[in-house]
Design a protein that fits this description.
Elements: H1 11-14, E1 41-44, E2 55-66, E3 69-76, E4 82-89, H2 95-112, E5 126-132, E6 135-141, H3 148-155, H4 160-179, E7 192-194, E8 200-202, H5 221-224, H6 232-247, H7 257-265
Antiparallel strand pairs: 1-2, 2-3, 3-4, 4-6, 5-6, 7-8
């Protein structure tokens, strides 16, 4: 996927990693069972406000999963554009489930709407969304380098110069969001994505409206308490991101989620990592936190 060159004359030889040979689906094939040979070719239907009338894409490898569903590598079947496709499964079956589905779609639509208007070098670009049977597809810019959290797992803690670079870009993206009164609420390594040139972009800002257990380690006290909070909550999380990048572990790594919950709730700060420059931890006494 990173600088691959064709190694043969067949489609299977030249497709990016994560894809397999397949047959494009024609209109007459839409109702046929395609079996397990190759990836799915999906024709996106309308019905979600931001959907195109139709769009065909090839579903590739699973590249992520979390509270908001699974994320797959996708490729536009017409122009070859690689995308990250977040799939959110919707309720099916009974009448109550249909009501839940309608309510869920309405809420998701309200969360997706603002994404269309966000354009910044440090914000993952929203492409479009579509409703395909009982799955909502949200198509986003693909970041081939993966997340900061994944890079930390693969390469270990970052040097301070790299941390400075990533923090600067994160703050520039946050400044853009904050100017538009958008609070991210879930800044952490898993939501900071990297391209092949070391540029970073913030993701999942349109879906960050609820408190999730896995994010407690990065959350500001007011977010953990689920009380009114301001843009400052994101700055606390940036401080936690700094700890994550400098140490290779999330804040309070020695604690369980529940133990960290009570620590953060009492406004306790992560201890300063050793062997780091003093200027990183000015925020230990900063009243804004």
């Amino acid at each position: 996927m990173n600088g691959l060159e064709p190694q043969g004359d067949t489609l299977g030889d030249t497709l990016p990693q994560g894809f397999a040979p397949m047959k494009l689906m024609s209109d007459s094939d839409e109702g046929e069972d395609k079996g397990d040979d190759g990836p799915d070719v999906v024709t996106c239907r309308g019905g979600f406000e931001s959907s195109p009338d139709w769009k065909r894409w090839i579903k590739g490898a699973l590249i992520g999963a979390g509270s908001f569903g699974k994320v797959y590598l996708g490729m536009d079947a017409e122009n070859g554009l690689l995308m990250a496709v977040r799939q959110v499964e919707l309720p099916t079956g009974s009448a109550p489930n249909q009501e839940r589905k309608t309510s869920m779609l309405s809420a998701l639509e309200q969360e997706v709407k603002p994404l269309k208007n966000l354009q910044h070098p440090n914000i993952v670009r929203y492409l479009y969304s579509s409703l395909d049977d009982d799955v909502l597809n949200i198509f986003l810019e693909h970041m081939p380098g993966g997340s900061v959290a994944a890079l930390l797992r693969d390469y270990g803690a970052f040097e301070e110069t790299l941390v400075e670079n990533f923090v600067r870009q994160t703050l520039e993206g946050l400044h853009y969001l904050h100017e538009r009164d958008v609070i991210h609420r879930d800044i952490k390594g898993a939501n900071i994505l990297v391209d092949n040139n070391g540029n970073i972009k913030i993701s999942d800002f349109g879906m960050s409206r609820k408190v999730y257990e896995s994010s407690v380690f990065w959350m500001a006290p007011e977010v953990v308490k689920q009380i009114a909070h301001t843009l400052k909550a994101d700055i606390w999380s940036v401080g936690c991101l700094v700890v994550e990048m400098l140490t290779g572990e999330h804040p309070w790594a020695q604690l369980t989620q529940m133990q960290a919950f009570f620590k953060v709730k009492k406004h306790r700060l992560q201890a300063k990592p050793t062997n780091t420059s003093p200027h990183w931890f000015f925020f230990e006494t900063n009243d804004t936190l």
